[in-house]
């Protein structure tokens, strides 16, 4: 249910990032840049809050560890993205950089959809495996 609510935002997030990219690239009026930036932020937060709630719900008994790992990886990837963004931006421009970033988002959204459609089956297999481990002890 938590991941189901992200589907609408998954459509609009890459589009708003691409829109932001090209209004920056083409030096459109600052109002258009602000609108696109607002939309990108809104849809990003929508997806993030829903997926974080899913991470908490899916990791019963170890949710704080899951949230900590989420934050660690998010911080690590933010650091790496920050380090490579300026050289990429200098070489391919704003439009190219953010279009590339939107493509990465689409791949990540595909992974979320994969969990949405196959997650139940994976959890059932994991629960069964845990039961077998406990029975063997």
TrEMBL record:
Record keywords: Membrane, Transmembrane, Transmembrane helix
Subcellular location, record wording: Membrane
Main location as per UniProt: membrane
Membrane topology value: Multi-pass membrane protein
Family annotation (InterPro entries): MFS_trans_sf (IPR036259)
Transmembrane segments: 29-55, 98-117
Record carries keyword Transmembrane: yes
Record's GO cellular component terms: plasma membrane
Molecular function terms, GO-annotated: transmembrane transporter activity
Protein name according to UniProt: Major facilitator superfamily (MFS) profile domain-containing protein
Lineage of producing organism: Eukaryota, Fungi, Dikarya, Basidiomycota, Agaricomycotina
